[in-house]
Design a protein that fits this description.
Blueprint lengths: L1 E3 L1 H10 L5 E4 L3 H6 L6 E2 L5 H4 L9 E4 L4 H12 L5 E4 L2 H8 L8
Parallel strand pairs: 1-5, 2-3, 2-4, 4-5
């Protein structure tokens, strides 16, 4: 599985055209505390049901709190035919520490 660090993602988002889908798989109450701007929330337990709404050819960065849940979702999406899946190593916690220190954490 491919992974990207928070710092690498920030730099990549400044250049990417088209932008990748930022797929946040945390729970709604976590999303309300903080999220990366432009990301789309689909909680982990809803991914199997809602994956048909996603483009399996679109580059997708999967995001969670620390990177564990997103790694599992990234593996799942790869197994069902998504070809351009990348996990955000360290999740939104790493984003807050490395990229946006003003972001609330939990």
């Amino acid at each position: 599985m491919l992974e990207i660090t928070a710092t690498e993602l920030k730099e990549y988002l400044e250049l990417a055209d088209p932008a990748p889908l930022l797929l946040d798989v945390r729970e709604p109450h976590e999303w309300e505390i903080c999220h990366i701007p432009g990301s789309r929330l689909i909680p982990m337990n809803q991914v199997p049901e809602l994956s048909s709404q996603l483009d399996p050819e679109q580059e997708t960065i999967v995001i969670c709190h620390y990177g564990g849940r997103s790694a599992r979702v990234a593996t799942y999406l790869s197994q069902i035919g998504f070809s351009r899946i990348i996990n955000l190593a360290g999740g939104v916690d790493a984003w807050a520490r490395e990229v946006d220190p003003d972001m609330p954490t939990y």
